[in-house]
Amino acid sequence: xxxxxxxxxxxxxxxxxxxxxxxxxxxxxxxxxxxxxxxxxxxxxxxxxxxxxxxxxxxxxxxxxxxxxxxxxxxxxxxxxxxxxxxxxxxxxxxxxxxxxxxxxxxxxxxxxxxxxxxxxxxxxxxxxxxxxxxxxxxxxxxxxxxxxxxxxxxxxxxxxxxxxxxxxxxxxxxxxxxxxxxxxxxxxxxxxxxxxxxxxxxxxxxxxxxxxxxxxxxxxxxxxxxxxxxxxxxxxxxxxxxxxxxxxxxxxxxxxxxxxxxxxxxxxxxxxxxxxxxxxxxxxxxxxxxxxxxxxxxxxxxxxxxxxxxxxxxxxxxxxxxxxxxxxxxxxxxxxxxxxxxxxxxxxxxxxxxxxxxxxxxxxxxxxxxxxxxxxxxxxxxxxxxxxxxxxxxxxxxxxxxxxxxxxxxxxxxxxxxxxxxxxxxxxxxxxxxxxxxxxxxxxxxxxxxxxxxxxxxxxxxxxxxxxxxxxxxxxxxxxxxxxxxxxxxxxxxxxxxxxxxxxx
Length: 506
Hints:
The protein is 50% helix and 14% strand. It has helices at residues 2-20, 23-57, 70-76, 89-92, 110-130, 156-161, 183-186, 218-224, 226-267, 282-330, 337-368, 403-419, 468-477, and strands spanning 66-67, 102-103, 133-138, 150-151, 167-172, 191-201, 204-213, 376-377, 389-392, 398-399, 424-429, 433-438, 482-486, 493-497. α10 runs antiparallel to α11.
């Protein structure tokens, strides 16, 4: 659903943003504004020339109208004039419909009456092409072409034009309601642009050209460009499909694989799990690797807990049975002092064994919660064993193992060597493997694969718990290291295979 939603947004978002921010509509508005400016400049030139001709024909005389101050005079007398876009639909918004012109009954000056037929003919001939409504106003805002001498001086855009500025406005049409409609987005024909342009001669504003036009609407434009829009839509759909397939391949597929992986682990079917060939993004590959590692450790931990439970039950069952039997015999009448003493010794011995087993279990539990330490020198890990002769080939070698943990591991191995009759232990470091070899009795080949298993011991009769090597293996696992017994004809040999180490102690 997320992928489908992203692809859908890819298709509709550009169009929605265009409509929402009125990008296309603003462009149509400015094109219409530019067109009206060009028309107004031409009408203004024709108006001014006709007015000057009428003035000359009437024998001259004073010209009325707003007199241009120096700053405006420089602009309007320049050889070229450029106008920045004046209207912006997002900024300006829509104004109220144009107010009705006032009927003043005032007749414009004779010179305006003289040029009225010429300008009326110009407007009639140009309208089929310009599609604009044009009104010619005198210096007081009167439309001298209208029958009722309509006055537009109260219009804001005309007021600006009478003071030698270009006045513009975006006004709603009177028949368009303010409420919600598609015209509020595409605008359609719901508004009209008004532009008032001053007519200047002899540094006076002698009149105003008032133009208005409805700009093209967005929907009409889209209809005209439907072929191009269809191609654009096809390209968007193809891009969305490609994006969707990529997202499915690099995100959805790996996530489904991880989901199935987790479900198999939860149901106990982790043996059926096969590593995924593809995980898409590098981060997804790292996540997949982490989840696989976590699943592997959880499955291993679950199996270990089950195995420990079986071993603990088995190992504690014998002492508990012996103690229970001895206690029952002690409670019987007629038991001799010698037999009573033997029962007491049995209880004491078996209780001590239970205590040793429980201590070993606690040590194993603590070992699982250790955190790896900093690499240290081999000489700093060596425990003090006066009864054994120790030989080390590289005592200053740096091992990727903390001094504390290294001491615990070597202590267990040296203790194991001592209990099996060794008098000498040789430690050899080759850069990755630390080999511990002794001259003791060693182990039968059949026992090698089980030596690091919890509770497995060859010294059960002498009180061995079988937890020493298991604790060492657990500590080494924190460093991704492995404790492995090696077959030997003389004595016992253990290899500690450590990961590569580039660190140097300070």
